[in-house]
Amino acid sequence: SVLKRFQQLNAKVLLSEDGHRLEGKEINMLPKLAEIVEGLPSLEKVIIIASKPDSHSKDISCIRNSCFLDEFLKMGVEADGSVPPMKFEQVSFSHPITITYTSGSTGLPKGIVHGSSVLLAEANTFFLNFDSDRDSRLISIMPAGTIVWLMHISVSFFGQTLVLYEGAPYFLNPTYFWDLLEKQKISIVFIFPNVLDEMQNRNFVPRETQNLSALKLIALVGSIAKLKTYDFLQSILKDTVFSSVYGIFMYNSFGN
């Protein structure tokens, strides 16, 4: 599926880790990268991000036009070791900056091109709709690669604090998720409704002494939330706003 999406773009540059850990297993990405690169003749450079200190010992010669990230960055260094100043260019609102894909539920996924105006749309969402500011702390219970990960760019752009979490937030103990919100003083949560459904079924609720006063908003993403999910949240978080922001494939993280 990765190959099919990139073939639609005639991609010229590909960035990827050499591997990652998933559910306790080490996943080697290099064989997959080699297969993807062979199917993309348009690629001019493949930049591999080392996931571990010993990653550079891996043989990447089978991946055409590839190099590790640190090698690529050295290409921009002058002979005397200095780095040339960055150049900024003013572009129009329609200038493309990102492409996101539809889910594919009604046919092949379609690439939606978004311009730089999306930053204003996200500023409107975060600062006005979500009533956040530079002191806000957000947590995203999202697997890497989902559309919501584009939100992370915006959070950095606004100077807010982002907390990332991978895996089931209730795996370690029944109150771990709520403990995390309390410890990190989280103000906004992005989470799948089915995760909250599972918490409700298992009665994984905050402790009576839990201090969640910093929590202002829970945004339910990815799918339509059931009425019982809202009832569950209302019963345990009476002073928190709940928002449903599913369907963001088409308008790229809350609008363009």
Set down the secondary structure blueprint.
Layout (H helix, E strand, L loop, with lengths): L1 H8 L3 E5 L1 E4 L2 E4 L1 H9 L6 E5 L16 E3 H6 L21 E6 L9 E5 L2 H12 L7 E4 L9 H8 L3 E4 L11 H9 L3 E4 L1 H10 L14 E4 L6 H10 L4 E4 L12
Parallel strand pairs: 1-4, 4-5, 8-9, 8-10, 10-11, 11-12
Antiparallel strand pairs: 2-3, 6-7
Helix pairs in contact: 7-8
Please describe what this structure looks like.
The protein has helices at 2-9, 30-38, 69-74, 118-129, 150-157, 176-184, 193-202, 227-236, and strands at residues 13-17, 19-22, 25-28, 45-49, 66-68, 96-101, 111-115, 137-140, 161-164, 188-191, 217-220, 241-244. The chain is of the alpha/beta class and 256 residues long. Strands 9-8-10-11-12 form a five-stranded parallel sheet. Strands 1-4-5 form a three-stranded parallel sheet. A two-stranded antiparallel ribbon has the order 2-3. Helix 8 (227-236) links the parallel strand 11 and strand 12. Helix 7 crosses helix 8 (227-236). The relative contact order is 0.11. This is Acetoacetyl-CoA synthetase. Residues 10-247 form the AMP-dependent synthetase/ligase domain. GO terms for molecular function: acetoacetate-CoA ligase activity.
In whole angstroms, the N-to-C terminal distance is 26 Å
The arrangement of helices and strands along the chain is HEEEHEEHEEHEHEHEHEHE
Q: What integer is the average pLDDT?
A: 85
The secondary-structure class comes to: alpha/beta
The helix count comes to 8
Global Rg: 21 Å
- What low-confidence regions span 5 or more consecutive residues with pLDDT below 50? 250-256
Largest sheet: 5 strands, parallel
Major sheet strand order? 9-8-10-11-12
* Number of E-state strands: 12
Report the β-strand fraction as a percent range.
15-25%
Q: Which word captures the global form?
A: globular
The level of helicity is 25-40%
Domain AMP-dependent synthetase/ligase: 10-247
InterPro entries: AMP-binding_CS, AMP-dep_synth/lig_dom, ANL_N_sf
Pfam families: AMP-binding
GO molecular function, one term: acetoacetate-CoA ligase activity
